[in-house]
Amino acid sequence: MPATTSSCSWPPAWTWLLLNFFLFLPKIPSSHVPPIVPTCRDKCGNLTIKYPFGSDFGCGHPDFARYIKCTSGELRFSSGTGIYSVSSIDYTTATLVLTDLFMSTCSSMQNSGSFRLDRGNPFTLSSQDTFILLGCSRTSPVFDPNEDLCDTGSGLHLCRGMYSCEGVTGIGLEPNAPVSSCCVYQPVIDFGSGYWLDLPKLQCSSYVSMYGFGGDETDPMKWQFGISLEYNNSYYTDTCKSCEASGGFCGFAGLTQSFSCICRGGGNSTTNCFGRGYAWSGTWRHKIQTKISFGGILLLWVVLLL
Ligand SMILES: *[C@@H]1O[C@H](CO)[C@@H](O)[C@H](O)[C@H]1NC(C)=O
Ligand SMILES: *[C@@H]1O[C@H](CO)[C@@H](O)[C@H](O)[C@H]1NC(C)=O
Ligand SMILES: *[C@@H]1O[C@H](CO)[C@@H](O)[C@H](O)[C@H]1NC(C)=O
């Protein structure tokens, strides 16, 4: 009789074990090794990242990925003259603002490097940018009377404003020094031809770039310092819009850098993320869990029947 009792008691023990096994199993698929497909994020540090920019390699448009990268939570723009941090992006006006650490502002002036925008890239200077050259030598080509490169009219009040800043001592001048070594630079620029502020050639020690007065033209501490760039906003295609509508990120893949829609749950597609089971609701994991639990109950039945 004891033998019968024990043989009668084994199915419940097995059932319990099996149930546990299948209850814990569903956690395995969610921790499997992800496929080697780029992942894209909505943010880089504090900045919202949208097409044509990308947070990671393979995200955004390849023409932009060459110049803009997210490194250690900072969006950086590289040009022939250096790497600048992107402090803001306005997607409605297709403009972004760069900060050059060596550029002068009212609070801090120092010797700057040059600034160059290569020709043929998808960026151009915004029309509201004003470049002010500081500490230029008397023999500087900007003062060539035949060239007319400096705004000597209304530009003079910008020079006076900058030379009234305490930071001016950083370039070896006294506050309110004569503005004869300052130039509000306005060379003729052809659209798409690039831009090069070559300080050694211009014989100036520093430059200031500003894109607005911050509401007060008389207070240079409030002026908006930075280099504002416009970007070519005609990269959006219907394929990319459809990819975004399915919760994916527009990106690129392969040697030809062809369009690739990168899905949030993982994986990529040449079109969009619809019907791939892992659009953004995240329900795909539940589906797998249900399938496995269902399979488990079936197996349990088979075992019990045996
Ligand atoms: C994010 O923004 C906050 C507040 O504007 C600022 O204090 C912080 O330094 C920023 N962080 C980065 C990584 O830019
Ligand atoms: C902007 O980009 C589009 C698409 O790549 C290109 O056809 C067009 O020539 C570009 N426009 C300018 C002004 O560079
Ligand atoms: C998906 O990404 C991989 C890795 O980047 C790439 O090799 C592949 O071509 C991509 N496939 C599609 C359909 O974009």
UniProtKB/TrEMBL annotation:
<dbReference type="Pfam" id="PF13947">
    <property type="entry name" value="GUB_WAK_bind"/>
</dbReference>
<keyword id="KW-0732">Signal</keyword>
<feature type="domain" description="Wall-associated receptor kinase galacturonan-binding">
    <location>
        <begin position="40"/>
        <end position="100"/>
    </location>
</feature>
<dbReference type="InterPro" id="IPR032872">
    <property type="entry name" value="WAK_assoc_C"/>
</dbReference>
<protein>
    <recommendedName>
        <fullName>non-specific serine/threonine protein kinase</fullName>
        <ecNumber>2.7.11.1</ecNumber>
    </recommendedName>
</protein>
<keyword id="KW-0325">Glycoprotein</keyword>
<dbReference type="GO" id="GO:0030247">
    <property type="term" value="F:polysaccharide binding"/>
</dbReference>
<feature type="signal peptide">
    <location>
        <begin position="1"/>
        <end position="30"/>
    </location>
</feature>
<dbReference type="Pfam" id="PF14380">
    <property type="entry name" value="WAK_assoc"/>
</dbReference>
<dbReference type="InterPro" id="IPR025287">
    <property type="entry name" value="WAK_GUB"/>
</dbReference>
<feature type="domain" description="Wall-associated receptor kinase C-terminal">
    <location>
        <begin position="226"/>
        <end position="265"/>
    </location>
</feature>
<dbReference type="GO" id="GO:0004674">
    <property type="term" value="F:protein serine/threonine kinase activity"/>
</dbReference>
<dbReference type="GO" id="GO:0016020">
    <property type="term" value="C:membrane"/>
</dbReference>
